[in-house]
Amino acid sequence: MLGPCLPSPLTELRDDRVEPHGVRLVLKRDDLVHPEVPGNKWRKLKHNLVAARGQGHTRLLTFGGAYSNHVRAVAAAGRHLGFATVGVIRGEEHEPLNDSLAYATSRGMTLTYLDRTTYRHKTEPAVLTRLLDEFGPGYVVPEGGANALGVRGCAELTGELDDAFDVICCAVGTGATLAGIAAGARQALGFAVLKGARHLADEVRRLQCAAFGAATANWTVDHDFHFGGYAKSTAELDAFAADFEARHGIALDRVYEAKMMAGLLTRIAEGTFPPGTTVLAVLA
After folding, report:
1. In the chain, what are the domain boundaries?
2. Which residues contact 282 (CB under 8 A, 6 or more apart)?
3. Which of 190, 268, 182, 195 is nearest to 231 (CA)?
4. If you average pLDDT over residues 184-213, what whole number do you get?
5. CATH topology (fold) of 10-35+147-283
6. Tally of helices (H runs) and strands (E runs) in the chain
């Protein structure tokens, strides 16, 4: 069975790049929620899985890129909870499979591929109907778990906090985590991991309206720390992540967490946060 460890623990980060600026920085270790379905992946899937079971589905169909952590999480959750899983992957098939897709297939997921043009239309009825006709009836989990149910799951994170945090930070891929966190935060700051993703602001507002009936105005998206784009890295980012692990014993995922933490520490050093600010960074 899938048994997440909640609430995820808080760890105060002692770092000489932070303390001179009078900022208190705490990590929310959502990466420790479950070894195969960590953090925001679990939160975004939780209510979708309940809905799938309630509607009598035995199969999950979802979407993602070749390095999607979401696809991995759906495969693992399906294996634990008895759902068949289908991953619809953006782009062409490449052999051998990368580590992410090999992991998904090891958990029983069937993979299929859509060219990038068709993938952009993946939510349209004609594309979905063809996929469900081919693979059988199933519950469609959107890319990244980004729907109203996923946002509501992410919103539960703030209910686990006893302390009052001035700002809550997270990495942003689809916008669902930021949309949920902002619903219960004083202020939320997301760090985009995609290059040129100016559409994310509209997506966060859309998701908040779908989940809660209205959008909030207490969040922003920082676009300056994508390090080349989704699932891409640079020597600078690799060096930052290696140094962070050496200092704190925490290995940061290069796709999301390392980018957020590099951005956050840069903004702290620049004086973005006034002295006395308490910041919570969500590792997921």
Report:
1. 10-35+147-283, 58-137
2. 27, 28, 30, 39, 40, 157, 168, 169, 170, 171, 177, 181
3. 195
4. 97
5. Rossmann fold (3.40.50)
6. 10, 10
Beta bridge partners of 61: 86, 140
CATH of 58-137, one of 3.30.40.10, 3.40.50.1100, 3.20.20.60, 3.40.50.1370: 3.40.50.1100
Q: What average pLDDT does this structure show over 34-55?
A: 94
**Least reliable range by pLDDT among 34-43, 128-137, 250-259:** 34-43
Distances (CA, A) of 165 to 168, 181, 182, 226, 274: 7, 12, 12, 25, 13
Spatial separation of the C-alpha atoms in residues 27 and 180, rounded to whole Å? 18
Entry field: residues in the chain = 284
**What tokens does 114 get?**
């859509």
Rounded alpha-carbon distances, angstroms, from residue 22 to 16, 25, 153, 236: 11, 10, 32, 26
Q: How confident is the model at residue 2 (pLDDT cuts 50, 70, 90)?
A: low
Helix (H, G, I), strand (E, B) or coil at 192: strand
Domains 10-35+147-283 and 58-137 share a fold: yes
Region 254-275: mean pLDDT is 97
CA distance 179 to 188: 9
pTM for the structure as a whole: 0.94
E-strand spans in 115-187?
139-141, 167-172
Report which residue type is found at 247: R
User: Taking a C-beta distance cutoff of 8 angstroms, is the pair 255, 238 a contact?
Assistant: no
